[in-house]
Amino acid sequence: MSTRLGGNLLARTLIPTGLTECKTSMRAFHPVAVDARLDQASHDEGYAFFLESIYDLKKANVTLGEVPIHFMDRGAGESKIPRGQIFKSMVVLGKLACGKR
After folding, report:
1. Which residues does 8 contact at the CB level (< 8 Å), separation at least 6?
2. 3-state helix, strand, coil in the chain (%, to 5)
3. Residue 4 half-sphere exposure, CB side, CA atoms within 13 Å?
4. Domain assignment of residue 35, given as a range
5. What is the pLDDT of residues 40-54, one digit of tens each?
6. I want to staple 33 with a disulfide (CB 3.0 to 4.6 A). Which of 15, 22, 28, 29 is the partner?
7. Who's near 42: CB < 8 A, 6+ residues apart?
């Protein structure tokens, strides 16, 4: 299982939001969602910010939805996400799952 798929499965299990893709940074927000998100302090400046955002929006009872796209896996090269950020995101995910921020 790829890191991308494993990360999404873990995120969907620990912080159920109804979304199938939890880690993407490709998002569109209604102004109500922007206001709900801005009401929360971000604790992470890295990639875990995206997990925090969907967690905070779900907690604020903002309706979350998805528009499916066809994602083509990388044909060459490596992810630009540093391994440290992956680990940090996992720690943040655990904290969110436990209701701790």
Report:
1. 20, 21, 22, 23
2. 45, 0, 55
3. 12
4. 3-97
5. 766 666 778 888 888
6. 29
7. 49, 52
Q: What's the Cα-to-Cα distance from 37 to each of 24, 29, 50, 60, 76, rounded to whole Å?
A: 16, 10, 11, 8, 35
Q: Cα 22 from chain centroid?
A: 4
- Both tokens of 93, joined, read 């995910």
Q: What is the mean pLDDT of residues 46-64?
A: 85
Which residue, among 35, 82, 85, has the nearest Cα to 57 in the 3D structure?
Answer: 35
Domain total of the chain: 1
- State how far the alpha carbon of 78 is from the alpha carbons of 6, 73, 74, 75, 82, in Å: 17, 11, 8, 9, 10
Q: For 1-44, what is each residue's pLDDT tens digit?
A: 566 667 788 889 998 988 988 877 778 888 888 887 777 766 66
